Amino acid sequence: MRAGRKVWAVASAYARSIWAYPAAEALRTIFLVVILIVFLELWRTTYSTMGTGVLGGLRLPQMLEYLAGTEAIVLSAPAFADRIGDDVRTGGLAVQLTRPVSYVAFQFAVAAGESWPRLLLNLAVGTLVVALATGSMPVGPAGILAYLVAYVPAFLLYASLFLALALTSFWLEDAWAVTFLASRSVMILGGMLVPLSLFPPVLARIARILPLQLMVYGPAQQLAHPFQGFASLMLQEALWLLVLFSLLAFVYRKGVSALHVHGG
Amino acid sequence: MSTADRRRFWPRLMLTAMRAQLAYPTAFWLTVLAMVLNDGVWLAFWWLYFSRFPVIHGWRLEDVAALWAISASALGIVQGFGGNLTRLARLIMQGELDVYLSLPKPALPHLLLSRVNVASLGDVLFGPLVFLAFLHPSLARLGLFLLAVVLAGAIFLAFLLLLHTMAFFLGRADLLADQVTISMITFSTYPSPIFQGGLRLVLFTLLPAGFINTMPVSILRSPDPRFIAGAAAFALLLGLLALLAWRQGLRRYASGNLFQARL
Predict the structure, then answer these.
(1) Residue B258 lies inside a defined structural domain of this protein
(2) Which of A183, A188, A197 is the best residue to mutate to test the B interface, defined by the most B CB atoms within 10 Å of its own CB?
(3) Total domain count, chain A
């Protein structure tokens, strides 16, 4: 219980630090607006060229809201590799490991504190851009609720995988390349750029087996089709959480025993 | 210093910057490889897209591959060997130009060429690889490809320089410069025909990505002399504007109290 309060305190402190600089956070959303304008033009052209109103089960506003949802997730994702790499290189890890809260729990708390405010801001800005561009509200309260609920385990999945990869800094010193490649896999196989419903059948089958689509495609799809296949999505997320938590615990145990701290 | 020594200064400077990065060879090659794979992921996205929608306004997968080959090569060369270009706003803001201004070499090229951006070298590798693998290379097409890379590189260089020199006039312009840079790169890597109306006008003026994303068709597929002349004239004009902004900006530059040494 006390551990839970500490984690909450860390997360809320980091969340407050994000809200402390609203202008800087607002500037960060420029890229989101730009990419959504590009997607709007690309998909508007695609729908009109194909002469159809529905592609992959999505109408144009739903497609754009789906992409706003995927971009919101990816653009608010935690950057574990930089932080942990710095801790290892500078020796600051020696201090981090002596904190009265587990190192892994601390990293989760920091990630949650930074990611959630950004996710909410990105989703709001993205939805506003889509609404202005299409002239209609692309999502209702049910879609937003389903997206946010599905994002809770999706965030834990994302954080577990990327924290496990970032912890390879204990051996490699710099895990940037490893996490960078994983993030690029999320872009394609997670359905960030194209929904899985538009993938070629073989690739769609492969993507559906992997957990990457549960981190991005799963929640974002809820914006277009609220609570459709929701129980199955949550069950898959829960099962993969067990797998990735176990992986994370294994990597952390091995990493700490292999660690040599040089300074601090 | 003899004239020959003076001429050799710039290649030696670049070589030294490269050697500094090669001091960690594993990290160097991992970073280069990661960027090649990153660009490959974008091509994979377009493969996915065109496998479902084979032709969009006359553009096929091959045209987008050409777009990526041109823009990655051009941006890679500019950002890779001018490694301080996208850090310029920050350097101006923090008063870190002093060290370059106090040395007997032109400050701008000295500053730009003093750092190699390793990740961008992956782009430099990726562009020619795509050209050789997918774009039916021949001597004539190689000439056109190189022309496109030079023009796109000149536009990127001039635009980014102009953008970052805004830090002289606006102060904290680093975050804005980062966002506009990524926007320019984003618009440069999507097919030109999808952008219409007012947005198209913006892409040929304020954010000149329109010149770059038109190159696969107007230079590589069916060379259009009017387009080539227009792009060259625009690059020249933008370059002159950027140099003017740099010179005016230096007059306003207030040095920091940071003590630095260049060894």
Answers:
(1) no
(2) A188
(3) 1
